[in-house]
Amino acid sequence: MAFEGLAQRLQGTLQKIRGKGKIDEADVKEMMREVRFALIEADVNLKVVKEFVKTVSERAVGHDVMKSLTPGQQVVKIVKDELTNLMGGEQNPIQFARKSPTVIMMVGLQGAGKTTTTGKLASVLRKRHNKKPLLVAADVYRPAAIQQLETLGKQLTMPVFALGTDISPVEIVRQALAEAEKEHHDVVIIDTAGRLHVDEVLMQELKDIRDLSTPDEVFLVVDAMTGQDAVNVAKSFDDTVGITGVILTKLDGDTRGGAALSIRAVTDKPIKFVGMGEKMDALEPFHPERMASRILGMGDVMSLIEKAQENVDEEKSKELEEKFRTQSFTLDDFLDQLQQVKKMGPLDEILKMMPGANKIKGLENAKVDEGQMGRVEAVIQSMTTAERNTPEIINANRRKRIAKGSGTTIQDVNRLLKQFEDMKKMVKQMTGMQQKGKKKMKMP
Ligand code: GDP
Predict the structure, then answer these.
(1) Atom of ligand 1 nearest to the CA of 277
(2) Are 108 and 73 in a shared domain?
């Protein structure tokens, strides 16, 4: 997971101070020494680390903290606030033009994820903002880049404007803008060329495109895995072309976090989105406060709820609730649930969004066994309808058949049936408790 090392260190340090009933300057100093170390190890820009440590120290030794009843918790809160500030404070939404179309220019080095992110962004704009984007292939140096964008366009059923490679990027953009007007596109996203390094010629080209299209947003796409390099790239693109925001990709990998924590402070440009995977739905708005909360092991309930809302079918949830209530829950429903949860993303990532998850022993290293989930799916799929509805009929012979059919073992089948039984018992107890609770409420 991203930020793993930093999260572990900071949480360990803060754990020591959290419960303290009394704190003095020496305690704060000791704590900040560890915080400083943790940030440096996470590859955070040195100047940023210094500034952060100074701000937190000053606030932490403040009169009101020291004299408060819960100084340890106050200090933890200060660290969280300042981490949030460091990453930009509030979430920073896309700026749409007052007059259509909104023009978004995507810039960045080769391999950062620019083309992929162009597709993802278009998808977000259509899904969450009800927009009708036009994608523009303006990287004329790599024919593969144009093809890549066209493939993404097909996949998303989204139009891509391309004129091949024998024409200047500026001319492509000029014609694309005319096309957007004609076809009533309210957003134009320009995928520009990338290079391996920042270079003069490229920068001039980007400036020309910028001057012609007067973009509402210039998003720099940077790879979070490159740490401080990402920060330097951001600085040079901002100094030359001028950027309005950053999209940090590959935050699903195990980046140490340095880029996410330094970019805002160094460039004063907000991180607007983060890439969380290769698929087209893996782009999320960046929420500094939620990220700080996750780094400090306080969970991220808001993101969890949003994920669930986006992926879980409401009709199905209602049906399921009814089935729980009437205890007519079957193995088919179990399978359904499993598949819905899987849509939310890798399970270990989801678990980590839960508050207090960091306190569960061993979870930090837990790799949820997705293979096990696959086996459960296979086992249920090898059952007949009758077996799924009334698992009681599954005798030894049937167990053998199911194990064979699903390529699993009899132990796998037994385990699943036992789990399902236990779950049913638990649901029965819970609904029993709810019923009692209801009766109680009605009593005068
Ligand atoms: P470009 O050269 O900047 O246009 O980069 P591409 O869009 O071709 O992406 C380079 C590679 O990074 C591709 O293999 C993408 O699938 C991958 N990639 C892009 N964004 C993400 C992300 O958020 N997470 C992961 N894991 N991979 C990503």
Answers:
(1) 24
(2) no
